[in-house]
Amino acid sequence: MQIPRSWCVRLLIGGAVCCSMLACSSVHATYVPDGRRGYVVNCGELLNGWSSCLVKAGQACGNHGYDTIKGTEEDRSMLIACKVP
Questions:
Q1: pLDDT tens-digit profile of 7-25?
Q2: What is the percentage of the chain residues whose pLDDT exceeds 90?
Q3: What pLDDT is attached to residue 46?
Q4: In what order do the strands lie in the sheet with 26-31?
Q5: CA–CA gap between residue 76 and residue 51 (Å, rounded)
Q6: Distance from C-alpha of 81 to C-alpha of 83, rounded to nearest angstrom
Q7: pLDDT of 54-67, one tens digit each?
């Protein structure tokens, strides 16, 4: 018995959507109360841990680094402010 091609395509698309929902994290630009440019970093999906948030925060601010304004490991989200030179 052969599986119809349309079923295979649906299974592949469904699997890809599920994987992307499990592994996704987001970074949104904002400003913190003291006026510096900042980011809200969310890593709350199943496959992302606190270390994933820290990596994303480092990538967002680059070589200058960042200050953590607010963030909890339990929520896996943080508000950061990029350090200015």
A1: 545 555 544 444 333 345 6
A2: 22
A3: 63
A4: 26-31, 37-42, 77-82, 66-72
A5: 9
A6: 6
A7: 888 999 988 989 99
Q: Could you state, in order of their start, the residue ranges of all structural domains in the chain? A: 25-82
Please give the C-alpha separations between residue 55 and each of 40, 41, 60, 61, 80, in angstroms, as whole numbers: 13, 10, 9, 10, 12
> Do 28 and 40 contact (CB within 8 A), yes or no?
yes
Main-chain dihedrals φ then ψ at residue 41, nearest 5 degrees = -110, 120
User: What's the whole-number average pLDDT of the chain?
Assistant: 76
Secondary structure in 3-state letters for 20-82: HHHHCCEEEEEECCCCCEEEEEECCCCCCCHHHHHHHHHHHHHHHCEEEEEEECCCCEEEEEE
